[in-house]
């Protein structure tokens, strides 16, 4: 009997070693960034079986077999749709600025979507202005209203949007609503889905979370885009979820969320429509590719805002937004202003900011003073010392949870959309951002950023070095997990 237990122990140890070795080899074979690989290896060895199980659930970008196959089949028809955009007069790469040209080149090669002219962009930085404008456009819709959000939280003006959608559906407008299952869980528990479906609105819960599904796809993939398209003529995108900040997340102790949205008319609206169509088809297998933009002659219009629509996410080409961010930082010669609620950058982005500051580019990073994610807050602080030492100005916004995701380069070119400066946004979530090559719009966004700065407390490098030992320890602990946040 003793020999039997001895053999059983040896077999168990060998099996344990085999599992750990196999998963370790798989982690290394994926050839991701060294930080991500080391973080996973650390988890696997510190919490052996739990870490191995966690890696199988969350370690790889597994969209699920059904969705992955569907996305693969979609590349050809969507690629052909995007390819037609190059034939239009609005494709004018030679009129792009020195900032816009390399970004457009990256996007054309990576995702096949060109930057297009003949757009009109309106920057909306007040929540109630955004919701009022959206309701007004919904009420005037004639044919279709398409919405896609990470969070829809009932209450306040968000309910007014719901009522406007129901009224539009009842007068014959086709309404499709695509919401992330986890982010919008409060909405799906409310009476609104039933009321909407009763009026003819199609309501789809994307990326549903359940224990059964965890064996077939990664559970923490999230639909983080915010897109509204009305009649294929008007679009909205930006950082704001469909929430009234006075009714949303009030118990988090971070204040009201501060956001911006961009209202767009013109050539890029059908492109945003196609991104919604992609997400809808991945989830439902129903195809609603929009009509192409109208091809206007030289006499009919002038070259206005040049916009590059940049989507990213599982099933799409990898790292495109990450590469655009890096390119934007590298080409800055005077100034960089960044606003983001969650700052846990990749090693490459972290070093790019340090190098920018060291070559005398004025770098301003604006983050919330209080964050609704404790892990992100502490991991974020771990990057501050090197940034401050290099000369980066770090500002902590005290007027609420600053949720705006924006980058302004040299007061000339800007990026604005749904993308946070963290691994989740850059590699996991379905995201969309706009690269805007228009001086007037960029200056308006810059003014919004300057208004944020008036309500900020700037970190002092000397004072930062005096923070407590427990704080330093917490930073280092969460820093080890930063590639996984």
Question: How are the SSEs placed, and which strands pair?
Answer:
Layout: H1 2-29, H2 34-46, H3 48-58, H4 65-83, H5 100-111, E1 116-124, H6 127-139, E2 144-149, H7 157-170, E3 174-180, H8 185-188, H9 192-198, E4 202-206, E5 227-230, E6 234-238, E7 257-258, E8 261-266, H10 269-284, E9 305-312, H11 320-331, E10 335-339, H12 347-358, E11 362-368, H13 374-381, H14 384-390, E12 393-397, E13 401-402, E14 406-409, E15 413-417, H15 423-428, E16 431-437, H16 439-453, E17 456-458, H17 461-464, H18 469-480
Parallel strand pairs: 2-3, 3-4, 7-13, 10-11, 11-12
Antiparallel strand pairs: 1-8, 1-9, 2-5, 5-6, 6-8, 9-16, 10-14, 12-17, 14-15, 15-16
Helix pairs in contact: 1-2, 1-3, 2-3, 4-10, 5-11, 6-7, 11-12, 13-18
Transmembrane segments: 6-29, 36-58
Protein name: Cardiolipin synthase A
InterPro entries: Cardiolipin_synthase, CL_synthase_A, CLS_N, PLD-like_dom, PLipase_D/transphosphatidylase
């Amino acid at each position: 009997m003793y020999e039997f237990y001895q053999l059983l122990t040896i077999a168990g140890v060998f099996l344990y070693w085999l599992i750990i070795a196999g998963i370790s080899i798989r982690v290394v074979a994926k050839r991701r960034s060294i930080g991500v690989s080391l973080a996973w290896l650390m988890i696997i060895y510190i919490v052996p079986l739990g870490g191995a199980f966690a890696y199988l659930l969350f370690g790889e970008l597994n969209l699920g077999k059904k969705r992955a196959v569907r996305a693969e089949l979609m590349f050809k028809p969507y690629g052909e749709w995007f390819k037609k955009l190059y034939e239009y007069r609005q494709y004018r790469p030679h009129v792009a600025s020195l900032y816009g040209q390399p970004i457009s080149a990256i996007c054309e090669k990576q995702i096949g979507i060109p930057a297009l002219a003949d757009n009109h962009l309106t920057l909306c930085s007040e929540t109630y202005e955004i919701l009022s404008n959206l309701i007004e456009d919904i009420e005037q819709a004639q044919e279709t209203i398409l919405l896609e959000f990470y969070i829809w939280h009932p209450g306040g003006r968000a309910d007014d949007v719901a009522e406007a959608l129901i009224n539009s559906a009842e007068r014959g407008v086709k309404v499709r609503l695509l919401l992330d299952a986890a982010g919008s869980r409060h909405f799906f528990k409310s009476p609104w889905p039933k009321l909407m479906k009763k009026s003819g609105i199609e309501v789809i819960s994307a990326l549903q979370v359940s224990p059964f599904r965890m064996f077939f796809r990664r559970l923490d993939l999230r639909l983080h885009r915010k897109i509204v398209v009305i009649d294929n003529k008007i679009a909205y995108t930006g950082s704001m979820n469909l929430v009234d900040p006075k009714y949303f997340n009030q118990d988090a102790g971070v204040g009201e969320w501060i956001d911006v949205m961009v209202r767009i008319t013109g050539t890029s609206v059908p492109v945003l429509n196609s991104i919604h169509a992609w997400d809808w088809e991945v989830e439902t297998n129903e195809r609603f590719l929009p009509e192409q933009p109208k091809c206007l002659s030289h006499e009919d219009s002038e070259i206005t805002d040049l916009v590059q629509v940049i989507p990213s996410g599982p099933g799409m080409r990898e790292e495109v937004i990450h590469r655009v961010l890096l390119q934007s930082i590298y080409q800055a010669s005077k100034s960089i202003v960044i606003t983001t609620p969650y700052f846990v950058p990749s090693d490459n982005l972290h070093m790019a900011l340090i190098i920018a500051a060291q070559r005398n580019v004025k770098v301003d990073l604006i983050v919330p003073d209080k964050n609704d994610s404790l892990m992100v807050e502490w991991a974020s602080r771990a990057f501050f010392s090197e940034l401050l030492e290099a000369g980066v100005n770090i500002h902590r916004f005290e007027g609420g949870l600053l949720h705006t995701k924006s980058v302004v380069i040299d007061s000339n070119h800007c990026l604005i959309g749904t993308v946070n400066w963290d691994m989740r946004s850059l590699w996991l979530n379905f995201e969309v951002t706009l690269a805007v090559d228009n001086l007037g719009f960029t200056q308006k966004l810059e003014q919004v950023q300057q208004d944020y700065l008036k309500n900020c407390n700037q970190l002092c490098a000397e004072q930062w070095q005096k923070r407590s030992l427990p704080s330093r320890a917490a930073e280092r602990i969460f820093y080890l997990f930063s590639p996984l946040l």
